[in-house]
Specification:
single chain, alpha+beta, seven-stranded mixed beta sheet, 6 helices
């Protein structure tokens, strides 16, 4: 199969909703297994919610604060090639003037100097490091800055020396943190050398090198790398960083897929806003492209219900903010996908987003699962596949 361990099947649509906050419009899709004609569907607006009544039952959608459906705005619209399976409706939204996007609580946005933080393994929530108070929290140059030096300089790389943190520093990369080791590391972390690069001979131009992988001693999850004897590189998908003070309580075992999805979605949005880019190349540490992501829009509010309950029972579903992305897997054998990958590579499209190989595989499974739950009419655009990443 072209996609990682994903079954070759998709779920039939019950009810799917996508609202566009900036455009103040929405699309409601109802599967014909739920309602056979537009006359069978009644949409009623409420205060930051609305309901969809069908012969199979009633669904209520809770909307984010400041977002409401305009009463009477639901209009049937052609479903194109999917008219045999789906009913489509266009909606209009009312957005409150004081409505604001929810502030991100991702670690890359909230880390501050002179505050105390604790570091936990995301897999088992074991505390990894002693509580830290950073004197400095500084951003590193963007992920591909080193590759651009050859274009800037006519002499050997003047920046070849690694940028490493001091004892009380935290350096922020695109997908990782650099922090100094402490005495607790001997009790909580393990280290193992792992070869990466051209050991298989497929690309002899890239030398084979070895990474010192850092893992959690309690659950064996790979957390990052030892980039120097006293420096740890911890990936943001592998650790939970929380303030040591305050009322917020850590979950015993956070849902891995949801944590990964929201962490990556938040980081893509931050990078897109700061770099004014919408194309991302998810890569392994040996710089091998794994997934190509095209951020289509960041103002979507989505909800999906696979089946509507029979017997007239009412159920409630919350609509959540999400990124809409087009994607293709670099391992996909299709000719169109190979052309996309080649075009991105030749034209240097895609800001690098480096993650461990197992995390790249996890991310592809999350994205493929999102794609499989979409209505048939929403799963592809041009030669790309479509997915939503929840924020």
């Amino acid at each position: 199969m072209s996609h990682l361990e994903m079954p070759d099947q998709t779920h039939g649509v019950g009810v799917f909703l996508e609202l566009r906050k900036r455009l103040q419009t929405g699309l409601l899709i109802v599967g014909k297994g739920v309602a056979s004609s537009p006359a069978d569907v009644t949409v009623t607006a409420g205060d930051s919610s609305f309901s969809v009544r069908t012969p199979g039952g009633e669904l209520s959608f809770a909307l984010p604060a400041g977002v409401a459906l305009e009463q009477g705005s639901c209009i049937p619209t052609p479903a194109g090639d999917s008219c045999g399976e789906e009913l489509h409706f266009r909606l209009r939204l009312s957005i409150a003037e004081n409505s604001k996007e929810d502030a991100s609580d991702s670690m890359m946005e909230t880390l501050r100097a002179k505050e105390t933080y604790c570091f936990h393994c995301q897999g088992c929530m074991t505390r990894l490091l002693e509580d830290r108070v950073f004197k400095r929290v500084l951003p590193l140059p963007n992920g591909n800055w080193n590759a651009l030096v050859d274009d800037w300089c006519c002499h050997p790389d003047p920046f070849a020396k690694k940028l490493l943190p001091r004892a009380e520093d935290c350096l922020l990369g695109d997908t990782f943190l650099l922090v100094a080791r402490d005495d607790s590391c001997e009790e909580t972390l393990t280290q193992e050398m792992n070869p990466v690069g051209a050991e298989d001979g497929q690309d002899p131009k890239k030398p084979c090198r070895r990474l010192a992988l850092i893992s959690c001693k309690s659950c064996s999850s790979v957390l990052g790398e030892a980039v120097a004897p006293e420096t740890l590189k911890l990936y943001i998908t592998q650790v939970v960083v929380e303030s040591a003070f305050g009322d917020r309580k850590l979950e015993a075992t956070p849902n891995r897929s949801l944590f990964l999805e929201r962490t990556i979605a938040a980081r893509l949005l931050q990078l897109s806003n700061s770099l004014s880019t919408f194309h991302f190349s998810v890569q392994t540490p040996d710089e091998k492209a794994f997934l190509l992501l095209w951020l289509l829009n960041s103002d979507s509010i989505t909800a999906s219900v696979a089946q509507v309950r029979d017997g007239g029972e009412s159920s409630v579903s919350s609509a959540t903010r999400a990124l809409k992305v087009l994607y293709t897997a670099c391992s996909d054998a299709g000719s169109q996908q190979r052309d996309i990958v080649a075009s991105w590579e030749v034209n240097a499209i895609g800001h690098p987003v480096v993650l461990p190989l197992n995390v790249c595989e996890e991310l592809q499974r999350v994205i493929d699962k999102s794609n499989s739950t979409l209505p048939a009419s929403m799963r592809r655009m041009r030669s790309y596949e479509v997915a939503y990443l929840r924020l």
